[in-house]
Design a protein that fits this description.
It is built from nine helices and six strands, in the order H-E-E-H-H-H-E-E-H-H-H-E-E-H-H. With 278 residues, it is mainly α. It folds into two domains: 112 residues, Cytochrome C3 (Alpha-Beta Complex), CATH 3.90.10.10; 108 residues, Cytochrome C3, CATH 3.90.10.10. The strands form three sheets. It has a two-stranded antiparallel ribbon with strand order 1-2. Strands 3-4 form a two-stranded antiparallel ribbon. A hairpin with a 2-residue loop joins strand 3 and strand 4. The longest helix is centred in the N-terminal third of the chain and has 25 residues. The chain is globular and about 65 Å long. Bound molecules: heme C (6 copies). One heme C binds next to helix 1 and helix 9.
Length: 278
């Protein structure tokens, strides 16, 4: 938790707000189409953070589906799902259907009623069988008491931070050990050599450089989650990304603010900033 006094903290955050406004105005001058975004929106409670609702089902189907990142990321790396299985990094962009699941793609890549994890068979998705109970575990909107996992119980022993679980610490201390390889889905091959950590130098001298750890990020993301889609430039420093683009969900904001720690935790990247802003 913050160590500075309340008063000082308030002044600092006011100062910070002015700075953002100024930077925002400069930015808006050059980019009028973009709405006035000064600070990231407050995220939902941690239990709802990174939740994807699939709601393209017809009225006759078994109803909308909930997918929670807090549960799945504790068990698997981001890379396994977003590279090996190929889920889009955007909600409702993959085109998941009962058929693709049934054929062993998408959710069905794991939820096939055969794969075993921690000594348990992973329940099947969208099968023809009369497994109504397991249908509801995913098609859970409008049902009650069918989910076996809830956030509070599941994360009760995980280290916590300013906002929900501190995932890095959970991984470092092996409280969780996310799987990075799934038989029959992941490819073996020479993994790319890890890259050096570096600092991002913001365009403004009043913002301290931001430390970026290739090593820590690669544990979760591999290389392919960031290159070439999110960070196409092979040469560091070729593209200038700003806080405003982050808040819009680009660059660092492609993950931070949606699934990885929210952007409201300024201190995570700007150690001199106030810890939390909204
Ligand atoms: C078990 C599989 C799985 C794991 C593990 C996983 N994701 Fe996802 N992720 C998904 C699915 C499924 C979607 C939704 C895709 C869709 O709707 O087309 C998604 C969506 C996203 C989105 C878009 C969210 C939005 O609101 O638009 C981001 C960003 C994302 N994931 C990042 C991550 C990061 C970062 C990690 C690791 C910390 C991670 N994911 C781990 C399956 C996974
Ligand atoms: C990489 C493997 C993997 C993928 C892909 C995956 N899951 Fe899971 N999921 C699991 C595992 C393992 C569990 C824990 C199962 C258990 O303990 O019974 C789980 C649990 C769940 C639960 C919790 C059910 C409960 O009773 O609380 C839901 C809901 C769920 N998955 C939905 C989905 C949806 C929807 C998709 C596709 C969008 C998906 N999963 C894709 C591995 C996966
Ligand atoms: C692991 C999670 C999971 C489980 C378990 C699951 N489904 Fe699905 N199902 C999905 C997802 C994701 C979709 C796509 C939903 C969307 O985009 O709205 C879907 C879609 C469907 C659709 C298409 C709905 C429509 O009207 O277009 C049907 C039908 C369906 N599921 C039937 C079932 C049945 C029956 C079961 C139980 C035997 C089941 N599902 C279990 C994840 C699951
Ligand atoms: C996930 C990391 C991350 C978090 C969290 C984060 N920032 Fe940033 N921020 C950056 C990066 C990277 C840049 C540098 C962009 C550049 O100039 O290339 C930056 C730049 C800035 C700048 C300089 C103006 C600009 O657009 O370059 C300001 C002001 C700023 N951040 C404020 C904040 C505030 C306030 C918060 C908390 C609400 C915050 N940041 C949270 C990564 C982050
Ligand atoms: C979380 C995102 C992320 C992951 C994961 C990631 N990188 Fe990067 N990488 C970056 C960013 C940000 C830059 C700087 C790009 C810029 O300034 O435009 C960068 C730059 C680079 C560069 C250019 C470096 C330089 O000094 O000019 C190379 C090469 C590279 N990455 C390779 C890799 C490899 C190999 C992996 C996997 C081991 C990897 N990256 C994983 C975000 C990532
Ligand atoms: C592909 C998704 C992704 C992108 C893009 C991304 N991150 Fe992260 N980042 C993560 C995940 C996952 C973690 C693990 C902890 C968590 O979930 O919050 C993490 C952790 C961090 C941490 C804490 C660990 C450490 O290194 O000390 C910092 C700081 C950070 N990211 C900064 C950045 C900055 C700055 C950028 C943009 C240059 C960026 N991230 C882009 C996914 C991403």
């Amino acid at each position: 938790m913050p160590t500075y006094s309340k008063r000082k903290g308030t002044r600092r955050s006011e100062h910070w707000r002015h700075i953002i406004k100024l930077a925002g105005e400069l930015y808006l001058l050059g980019n009028l189409a973009v709405a006035q975004i000064y600070l990231p929106k407050a995220p939902p409670p941690p239990a709802d953070y990174g939740r994807i609702v699939f709601n393209s089902t017809s009225k006759t189907g078994p109803g909308p589906v909930i997918f929670d990142h807090w549960l799945h990321r504790a068990k698997f790396t981001c890379r396994v799902c977003h590279v090996d299985i190929g889920f889009a990094m955007q909600a409702n962009a993959t085109g998941i259907t009962a058929t693709t699941n049934h054929e062993g793609y998408h959710c069905g890549a794991c939820h096939d009623g055969k794969r075993v994890l921690d000594g348990k068979v992973i329940f099947a998705s969208c099968s023809d069988g009369p497994e109504e109970k397991s249908c509801d575990r995913c098609h859970s909107i409008g049902t009650s008491n069918v989910r076996q996992y809830d956030y509070d119980t599941f994360t009760s022993k995980f280290p916590k931070g300013v906002y929900g679980v501190n995932w890095e610490l959970a991984e470092q201390t092996h409280v969780i050990q996310p799987i990075d390889f799934i038989d029959g889905l992941s490819m073996t091959g020479a993994s790319l050599k890890n890259r050096k950590d570096f600092v991002v130098k913001p365009a403004y001298s009043w913002v301290h450089p931001i430390a970026f750890s290739h090593e820590k990020h690669t544990i979760w993301n591999g290389c392919e989650l960031c290159h070439p889609d999110i960070f196409p430039a092979a040469q560091k420093g070729t593209v200038h990304y700003s806080m405003f683009l982050n808040i819009e969900g680009r660059y660092c904001g492609a993950c931070h603010g949606k699934v990885a720690s929210p952007l409201n935790n300024c201190q995570k990247c700007h150690p001199n900033a106030p810890p939390w802003a909204q």
